Amino acid sequence: MERFYVTTPIYYVNDVPHLGHAYTTIVADALARFHRMRGHDTRFLTGTDEHGQKIERAAEERKMSPQAFVDELSQRFREAWPPLECEPDDFIRTTEPRHVKVVQELWEKCRANGAIYEGTYEGLYCVGCEAFYTEKELEQTPQGLCCPIHKTPVEKLKEQSYFFKLSAFQDRLLEFYERNPGFVSPESRKNEVISFVKSGLQDLSISRASFKWGIKVPGDPKHVMYVWFDALTNYLSALGEPNDPLRRYWPCDVHLVGKDILRFHAIYWPAFLMGAGYGDAELPRKVFAHGWMTINGQKMSKSLRNVVEPIKLAKAFTPDVVRFYLLREVAFGQDGDFNHSQLVARYNAELADSLGNLLNRTLGLCTKLRANSPLDAKSARGDLEAKLEDAAKLALQQTTLAWDEIAPHKAIEATWVLIRAANKYVDEAAPWAEAKKGDAGKARVDVILATALETLRWISTLIWPVMPEVSAKIRAQLGIGRIEPVQGENALALQWEPRSDTSGLAVGTPIFPKIDADRQAAIWAELGMNEIEKPEAPKPEAKETKPAEGGKKPKVMAEPAAEITYDEFARMDLRIGQVLSCERVPKSDKLLKCMIDLGEGQPRQVVAGIGKAFAPEDLVGKQVVVVANLKPAKLMGLESRGMILAASGEGENDLALLAPGKTRNVGTRVK
Ligand code: MSP
Q1: pLDDT digits (tens, 9 = 90+) for 436-462
Q2: What are the residues whose beta carbons fall under 8 Å from the beta carbon of 300, sequence distance 6 or more?
Q3: Do residues 653 and 613 lie in contact, with contact meaning Cβ atoms separated by under 8 Å?
Q4: 436/434 Cα distance (integer angstroms)
Q5: pTM of the predicted model, to two decimals?
Q6: Which residues form ligand 1's pocket by a CB distance below 6 Å?
Q7: Three state DSSP letters for 48-98
């Protein structure tokens, strides 16, 4: 049976669980669920990193013993995950005896193999990172040399230390990367790692004698181990000792990490294992580095963290919606932004209007047109049904492929292509019109309803890794059981079998009630959104007409255009569209190729010259105003059907997109 083992970093116990931690944990959970539902023997590990000088100092400040301090803090992380529907199989703490034992064994193996030796260390150390830096990696500031991440001065350390012979593993690491091209993802990060290793690896000081809160070095208890030697080993120690049945999960399939800790995972960790005598086949299979999250465009500061506290968000929006948004919004591997308004826009457009609408209208039609009586699911099947069946099979294939390449955003998009196709199918097949034909239309009505219900069954399966509770609710309304993964059984081996039995259908309350302005205001208040610093209000200089002080020229307003009649204006078809995907046009720094949903069934391709002001990821998911009846044109060989409206500012880099003040249905006319 296939096995799958996924890990998150173990989080520093003295931090509070925040959105950055939640993001990695949710991705890990969704990935584990995907493998579980395929019947794989799956393990998902998270935990807390509890040693080090930082913790020792913080405990001292609280006048607590370090152990009591970490016992209290670790609990916050343990309790953070169930409210987000994250179900790790194990939660490891680096202060547990099971961990300490395995770390000491690993150390002893490295020592026996000559990979650890004694020496004196002199260097610059950042306690925040628990890492040594070379001078050129640091920032020169008036307070002295500062850590590039924490912006705080580094400390000069000189002490007796044990060293890990990292330099001896340089060639072997490079060969390992060469033979295992999938070891570091994404590709751009892999190149970073390789060039770092090629630039020359220095031996690593891996013990400290100036503080006590750590795992003791075997045979030399004055020394405690370098926290990263200790912490990285959690991935192994959580599987017990070598004879433990849990060791079947080793080597780990994927370590999910933030880009800031990639070096530790992609260089140090395999080198430590090599030092302990592990062969290439026993090294982790992949380290996937994701980007960093900002909040409403700003770096995560203490005050901002409060409004995105994972548990608060889950309460305000439900855990499934938070999971959906995070996985959908951020292309896994890239930096991303958590934006509250964007979350609401996606919720309304993709959950309420798209998935929710498909469910509600299908069940509503079953009741209205057929009073939930059994359906003749086959005899009047036509081309439209065949097309939807193909779309479902394609979505299944692409969603699976996307999860296999750890691209949750692509998995969700592949499923949403099917949801949009299903809504379009119901529009085109128009069962209400068939019903008007009386007996002559009955067979068609039956086949349409059965096909839509079957598509919903498939969708409820495909979304399970991301939204397990929503999946269960949809299935309850369809009268089928929730997804309960069974080892060895592939719940994704779906067969297309429209059913005649409608006895279990149960129209419930809508799963995704629209978030209107009132509800949004209530959520904002609940989250304390009104208390966070607002971005500075724009200065009113655009309206200024008298010469500004300091000889600056006043802003020149554009010449007013010639008057037009209302009829002339009405010839313009302005519509609300939602950007589904967006990418740069190769060889152009200005053009973006956007696929925009205007509610027409098929998205439109619009090539917009706004690429200097926006990155593609700024646009995806946004609602925009589109000139829908603009004559098609070709730009750099690409057809463009429409134009996105934006207001200009200081130049090509400064544009403001026009967007509705409230989320609107796609295709809504702007007048
Ligand atoms: N304890 C170490 C990891 C040891 S693993 C053997 C550590 N802990 S951490 O709590 O500081 O960070 C854990 C993870 O959270 C890292 O992957 C880091 O990238 C991630 N994040 C912290 N802030 C983040 C964002 N703002 N956005 C996304 N992830 C971020 O490092």
Answers
A1: 999 999 999 999 999 999 999 999 999
A2: 18, 19, 20, 293, 294, 308
A3: yes
A4: 5
A5: 0.79
A6: 9-12, 15, 20-21, 23-24, 49, 231-232, 234, 257-258, 260-261, 292-293, 300
A7: EECCCHHHHHHHHHCCCCHHHHHHHHHHHHHHHCHHHCCCCCEEEECCCHH
